[in-house]
Design a protein that fits this description.
Number of helices: 5
Family: Belongs to the peptidase C59 family.
CATH architecture: 4-Layer Sandwich
Radius of gyration: 20 Å
Helix content: 10-25%
Structural class: alpha+beta
Domain Choloylglycine hydrolase/NAAA C-terminal: 2-310
Strand order of the largest sheet: 11-10-9-6-5-4-3-18
GO molecular function, one term: choloylglycine hydrolase activity
Strand content: 25-35%
Largest sheet: 8 strands, antiparallel
Distance between the termini: 40 Å
Pathway: Lipid metabolism; bile acid biosynthesis
CATH topology: Penicillin V Acylase, Chain A
Pfam family, one: CBAH
Length: 325
């Protein structure tokens, strides 16, 4: 399970929580413009937009969990087990495997509008990376530095592209049902509620924050979707990059999963392995991990963008504590 958001505060910050029970050895990976991107059924991209993000590199191929390109377009793949459906190769379509989908879009598109055009002929095909690395059932959030966002879902009824007005994506159910469910919580507010139950009776308020009393707080994807929409809609905008990055991570950490709370098997618990975000204007990629709360950063434009070698940065996974005495 995962959560992905687009946070707007002057610049736009895009990223996600990765919630799983195991880590895959992911790294921050920058793919420069001239690193060849091979696709199983589509022509190779020898020159493309540079990409930064979190990825597993397998056989020199960057398998991105999420990332953004140098033009300010971001994309993240989130678990969508059940509704997700991928198809056989279809003549006349752009046949792309889900493991290629992020570099395919980020390598060629500057913004959401261009991504929508490319998606019109797309067919997400059922081709595994290898026998050892099978396809994951995913859907995707795509967003750009203008503030536009879309959700892409491939189900048995075909490929669906939805405008995403709340800039949030979690997991099941299908995205239109997630939006419909928000109506059940439209009275939730940061303010204390008015007494409409018994207006002639003075009711004592026992706590601050009573306006959010009915906000769900479970680890399930529907609860996280509602809570993150509420958090993001009311998040403040800072006056500096540090303030905005700090606010961004508070938004993601509002729905992070702690160890021991989401059991997925005997003695196995899903948790937030990492949270990340990229400033879509500057290309600076930020992240925290479960075992390291410090915000770490990798600047895309500090590396050679014209090269033919991947730039790889191991995850800083050890806690950094500022000892003051």
């Amino acid at each position: 399970m995962c959560t992905s958001i687009l946070y707007t505060a002057g610049d736009h910050y895009f990223g996600r929580n990765l919630d799983l029970e195991i880590s895959f050895g992911q790294q921050v990976v920058i793919t420069p413009r001239d690193y060849p991107l091979n696709f199983r059924k589509m022509p190779r991209l020898d020159h493309h937009y540079a990409i930064t993000g979190m990825a597993l590199v397998q056989d020199n191929y960057p398998l991105y969990f999420d990332g953004a390109n140098e033009e300010g377009l971001g994309m993240a793949g989130l678990n969508f087990d059940g509704p997700a459906h991928f198809f056989p190769v279809e003549e006349g379509k752009d046949n792309v495997s889900p493991f290629e989908f992020i570099p395919y879009i980020l390598g060629q598109c500057k913004n959401v509008a261009e991504a929508k055009e490319l998606l019109k002929s797309l067919n997400l095909v059922n081709i595994n990376f290898s026998d050892q690395l099978q396809l994951s059932p995913l859907h995707w959030l795509i967003a750009d530095k203008s503030g536009a966002a879309i959700t892409v879902e491939s189900t048995a009824s075909g490929l669906h592209v939805y405008d995403n007005p709340v800039n949030v994506l979690t997991n099941n159910p299908e995205f239109p049902d997630q939006l419909t469910n928000l109506a059940n919580y439209q009275s939730v507010s940061p303010a204390n509620p008015a007494n409409t139950l018994a207006p002639q009776t003075a009711l004592a308020s026992y706590s601050r924050g009573a306006g959010s009393h009915f906000l769900p707080g479970g680890m399930d994807s529907e609860s996280r979707f509602v809570k993150e929409v509420f958090t993001l809609q009311h998040a403040p905008a800072g006056e500096t990059e540090v303030a905005n990055v700090t606010n961004y991570f508070h938004c993601l950490h509002a729905v992070e999963q702690q160890k021991g709370l989401d059991e997925v098997g005997k003695d196995q618990f899903e948790y937030t392995i990492y949270s990340d975000g990229v400033n879509l204007t500057t290309g600076t990629f930020y992240y925290t991990t479960y075992d390291n709360n410090q915000i770490n950063a990798v600047k895309m434009h500090a590396e050679d963008m014209e090269g033919q070698q991947l730039h790889r940065f191991p995850i800083a996974s050890h806690q950094s504590i500022n000892m003051q005495n």
